[in-house]
Amino acid sequence: MRRSSRGRTPSGKPNPVDVHVGARVRLRRTLLGLSQEKLGEAIGLTFQQVQKYERGANRIGASRLWDLGRVLDVPMAYFFDEMDDSTQRHSPMNIAQHPGEPPVQGTDTMTRRETLELVRAYYRIGDPGVRRRVFELTKTLAGIGEGAAAAEDVAVQ
Prior knowledge:
CATH topology of the domain at 1-101: 434 Repressor (Amino-terminal Domain)
Shape: globular
Structural class: mainly alpha
Distance between the termini: 63 Å
CATH class of the domain at 1-101: Mainly Alpha
Helix content: 55-70%
Number of helices: 8
Largest sheet: none
CATH superfamily of the domain at 1-101: lambda repressor-like DNA-binding domains
CATH architecture of the domain at 1-101: Orthogonal Bundle
Strand content: under 5%
Low-confidence stretches: 148-157
Order of helices and strands: HHHHHHHH
C-alpha cells in the first residue's frame, strides 16, 4: 500500500510550493500590518496555525486559500506570483514524476523583515511627491552602490 507524503518532498521537508505560498501570505499580512493572531481570528484559526501556514509546514487547502485571499484583499493568483521555475518543478505531481531531486532553498529578499518594514514605511509617506522622491533616491543610491563596486573591480585588475 502506498503511503501519502501529503505533498512533502522525498526528504520529508515542506514542499517549496507550499513554502512559497506561505511566504506570500506572510508578506501580505505584514504589509497590511496584521499580526498572525489578527489574521487567525479573521479566518477562524489560531496564530500557531497561521505560523505553520506561513512556514509551509502545513499545506493550505483551496477553501482556506480563498478565505485568506478575501481577508488579505488579493486575488488567488497573488499567492503564486513570482514563483520561480525551480519552485514550480517541486509541485507534488512533478516530485512524483522526478523523485529524489532536492528542493532549492534560497533567500527571498521580499520575505526579509527589513524589506517589509521599508515597504510599510514607504507607503506611510502621505505626500505622493515626497514618496516619489524617496523612490528615486533609493534607485539612485542602489545604482551608485553597483557602480562603486564595479569601479573597485576595475581598480583591482
